[in-house]
Amino acid sequence: MKAQAVTKFLDEYEINSHTIAILPEYALENTLVSRVLEMNNEFYVAQKPTDIVKKSCTYFGSSFKGRTEGTKALIGVTHKSPIAISASKNLFFFPTTSATRKECAWISHVHVKHCVYTPKQYTRVTFINSQCIELDLSLGSFENQLFRTGQLRAAFHDRQSAPLLREFNMVKEDELGDYLKRKKKASSTFEEEDEGEK
Questions:
Q1: Residue ranges of the domains in the chain?
Q2: Over the chain (198 residues), what is each successive 10-residue block's mean pLDDT?
Q3: Could you count the other beta carbons within 10 Å of the beta carbon of residue 37?
Q4: Rounded to an integer, what is the distance from CA 17 to the centroid of its chain?
């Protein structure tokens, strides 16, 4: 009897410093799973790529929503947002499409060596371990995601290395009431604008 092929599967997975890419693939025709590429390993996970990213954000003490809001605050990007899953561990990943789409893959910024456009209109990505993948998106789109993730990494680095600067408001005792009212009004306006964006 012919031996059956065996595939390595994990039930769950947290992104780590060895993670290169998380790619969507279908098992049994209609079940979306993830093919995970690590520096010295490759296997499958019974989770969708974006679900792995969300779980990894939680694992490192935040949430996917919190990370995307952080990206917006730092570099103003709101669509196909790169995120810092863990800035301290240098885990900066970016999606190849909108994170809500089934075909979305997630790529580690620090592991990308170079990328080229193929004659078959795919983008071939080479990683620092010489492993290659081909993605069904334009070279310009991939390079834009690389650039924005680089911006995010630089912004985190600047925040972490910036000296502590404070500028105090000198408020007279008889003007304290008016000062606090102005601050409260400004805070209320900010909260209303924030609610309007949701």
A1: 9-161
A2: 73 97 90 96 96 98 96 96 96 97 97 95 96 96 97 90 76 86 75 54
A3: 20
A4: 14
Query: Cα 125 from chain centroid?
Result: 18
Alpha carbons 112 and 151: distance in angstroms, whole number = 15
Sequence-distant (6+) residues with CB within 8 A of 87 are: 156, 160
* Amino acid in the structure at residue 75: I
Inter-axis angle of helices 64-75 and 49-59, to 10 degrees? 80
Is residue 108 classed as helix, strand or coil in its secondary structure? Answer: strand
pTM of the shown model: 0.82
With the CA atoms of 18, 24, 28 and 30 taken in that order, what torsion angle do they form, in degrees rounded to the nearest 10? 150
Spell out the residues 6+ positions from residue 159 whose beta carbon is closer than 8 angstroms to its own: 74
Could you tell me where the DSSP H helices lie in 139-175?
139-161
Single out the residue of 159, 125, 161 nearest to residue 145, CA to CA: 125
Coil, strand or helix: which one is 41? Answer: strand
Report how far Cα 87 is from the mean position of its chain's Cα atoms.
11
SS3 47: coil
